[in-house]
Write a structure and sequence with these properties.
InterPro entries: RNaseH_sf, Transposase_Tc1-like. This protein is α/β, with parallel strands linked by helices and about 220 residues long. It has 7 helices and 5 strands, in the order ααααβββαβαβα.
Length: about 220
Amino acid sequence: MEITTWAQEYFQKTLSVNTIHRAIRRCRLKFYSSKKKPYLNMIQKRRRFLWAKAHLKWTVAKWKTVLWSDESKFEVLFGKLGRHVIRTKEDKDNPSCYQRSVQKTASLMVWGCMSACGMGSLHIWKGTINAERYIQVLEQHMLPSRRRLFQGRPCIFQHDNIFLFMMRQMFSMGERSGLQAGHFSTRILLRCSHDVVIDAVCGLVLSCWKMQGLP
């Protein structure tokens, strides 16, 4: 109905919904569900642009030294099923015509990493991520993946959506490893779109974070 109203106002003519549908089909257009993308404000867009500009001259060999990682939450969304039903007016309370929904959907968190050298570990756990869990994932899955994929060569660990309180605990991870600072040259590649990242903290992480378990 919105497109019909817009067309009537734009062309200053009375147009039916069927007329609009026929015109859309003649133009070989179809109705699709919109793709979902995270909203980005102007500050976030600018930071992403600056990040891309700063890495514009990176060579293919440089990008091959990056260990990429990400985490995502997967939910079973019953509420998305059966949004439309064909029924009579009297069947509104018929259970077969209900739209299914749940108060709290089941979910899983998935973390994974990869590089130009191949696929790293894929880890699945229930519940939400916190600092301690994130550190465990790094120790039990990221470090073995790094050793297997890069065979002791220096690499750049790229992480997404990490928070400052997680960064603080990463220092403890380095201390527990018992390695001297700078024993393994691993840097953290941060996306400039993350508002929580502070340059001073990043510099401290880059210089002090110690990796464990060298081959």
